[in-house]
User: Fold this.
Amino acid sequence: MLEPGNNDELPPIPGKRYFTIGEVSDLCGVKAHVLRYWEQEFPQLKPVKRRGNRRYYQRQDVLIIRQIRGLLYADGFTIGGARQKLTGDEARSDTSQSQQIIKQVRVELEDILRLLRR
Assistant:
């Protein structure tokens, strides 16, 4: 599961609709070639491909990638184990992703409030 402790060092996700592979690489702390590999291993990752076969990830994809990163790097899962965990947790994952989005929106709103109070 995506837990706050696993991804505290990662930057907040900007409020954009689409992200390039380079942006996702920076947001998730994972190299681009690793992201392309994970696309083959995890059926949940389906970035939109446009002209020139360029990948465009959505916010949900970024959250899934952070979840995969947490499972592999922090929790010590193998690729196969992480894949099973994700497919088994899809129902609970929706709740977790919603909580992550709410947390992210709250952080962004607090930042805006701090700017307005200056």
